[in-house]
Write a structure and sequence with these properties.
Layout (H helix, E strand, L loop, with lengths): L2 H9 L7 H19 L1 E3 L4 E3 L1 H32 L6 H18 L10 H28 L5 H30 L2 H10 L3
Antiparallel strand pairs: 1-2
Helix pairs in contact: 2-3, 3-4, 3-6, 4-5, 5-6
Amino acid sequence: MNNQTRTSFKRWALPTLTVQQLVLLSALIALSFILGRVSITTQLIRVTFVFLASSLMGKFFGPLWTAMTMVLLDFVKVTFFGGGQWSPVMAIGVLVAGLIYGGLFYQEKQTDKVALWKVVVAVLLITIVVNLIINTGALVIMYSQHKSVSVFFSMMATRLPKNIIFFPIQLVMTYFVLNNPIVKDISKRLFKS
């Protein structure tokens, strides 16, 4: 097996984490809780910055750790802090988002800069596949009395403006956070290449 093949498989592995890496993962979970509480809210939209913690999880831990952590985090947030009932249908979007973040941001050499094209593809996939398709479908399944394609598209139309407005904001913030010198320093210290 050549080195390129090993690198591709390593990206989708579930490596054992060191104590320092577990502490970092715990800190990112706490950051996700904090960012979930801080939001910009208008009459039409509510924007949170949880995607920053999720992006960092993807960069440091890869797709499987990120997806599992995000689903567990979603369960804890909704069940214990959200006042609602956790739904596995909504968790599908969270799972796919974790796989996208980890699949595109995780690198063999952690100190390398995350390429702009990877950030564009990841944010585009999150916006279209997760936010508009999967989450809209989950909302139709969970809350609509009439489950039809027309209901799906009308609900998607109401969600589209927020996603169009938020896309460039998420893109710029994700790129700069992932390529921040502090993030590179954490990578050097905790993830030996």
